[in-house]
Design brief:
By secondary structure, the chain is of the alpha+beta class. The chain has two domains: about 80 residues, 3-Layer(aba) Sandwich (Glutaredoxin); about 120 residues, Glutathione S-transferase Yfyf (Class Pi), Chain A, domain 2 (Up-down Bundle). The chain contains nine helices and four strands; from the N terminus they run βαβαββααααααα. Strands 2-1-3-4 form a four-stranded mixed sheet, covered by helices on one side. Strand 1, helix 1 and strand 2 form a beta-alpha-beta unit. Helix 1 runs parallel beside helix 3. The longest helix is centred in the middle third of the chain and has 31 residues. The protein is globular. The structure holds glutathione.
Length: about 210
């Protein structure tokens, strides 16, 4: 029995961020409860008691419950052995934090809610909304551009692989399944970054399952 319990299904980009981190740390034995966001599972009273806003992921570890991906990821990065996904220098940490914040605040809504939902799960957002899709392309592209400018000549967004990549990659994965991918991915350096992400075993081991 694993001492890591994770609520949230494999269709969630935020759950995938956590699972990529766990995979990078070499942890595969977790007790995962596949709450399906598309089926409304996180809105049940049981889950609302865990997370009052009905979101996944939620983590239990070592007698502690943790909500919110950034807190979960930072905590797991600290307590699990293995290489750190948080850069050691203040400037690289700032690069990471900046893109995590940008993805959280603007990227998820644009790329997932605007583009991916339009093509892949329109029912979840009340049907196909052309305005939301257009805004998603415009703002999603800004997010990708800023991430790639921040990456500069590094392999990954904040130097070495970090939480910034683990935030953006699961969302980009959904966009890559849509016909709008070229409109947002046609950004300098994106192709090189994406090839590196797709080659990561942690990415390959955590394919989304929205079923
Ligand atoms: N601020 C939260 C966001 C998590 C989030 O939005 N999760 C989505 C799935 S990717 C969710 O649980 N959605 C359920 C819903 O909105 O009903 C975090 O960082 O963990």
């Amino acid at each position: 029995m694993s001492d890591i319990k994770l609520w949230g299904f494999d269709g969630s980009t935020y759950v995938r961020t956590v699972k990529m981190l766990l995979a990078e740390k070499g942890v595969t034995d977790i007790d995962q409860v596949q709450l399906n966001v598309l089926a409304g599972d996180p809105q049940t009273p049981e889950h609302l008691a865990r997370h009052p806003f009905g979101k996944v992921p939620v983590l239990d570890h070592d007698g502690m419950r943790i909500l919110e991906t950034s807190a979960i990821a930072r905590y797991l990065n600290d307590v699990l052995p293995g290489k750190s996904l948080v850069p050691s220098t203040p400037k690289d940490r700032a690069r990471m934090d900046m893109i995590v914040g940008i993805v959280d605040s603007y990227g998820y809504g644009a790329l997932l809610g605007g583009i991916a939902a339009y093509h892949l799960f329109p029912d979840f957002v009340g049907g196909q909304n052309e305005e939301a899709r257009k805004a998603g392309i415009e703002n999603g592209r800004k997010v990708i551009e800023l991430a790639m400018t921040t990456k500069g000549s590094s392999d990954f967004i904040a130097g070495d692989l970090s939480l910034a990549d683990l935030y953006l990659a699961p969302i980009a994965a959904y966009v890559s399944m849509t016909p709008d991918k070229d409109a947002v991915f046609d950004v300098p350096s994106f192709a090189e970054w994406w090839a590196k992400v797709e080659a990561l075993p942690s990415y390959q081991a955590t394919a989304p399952n929205a079923g």
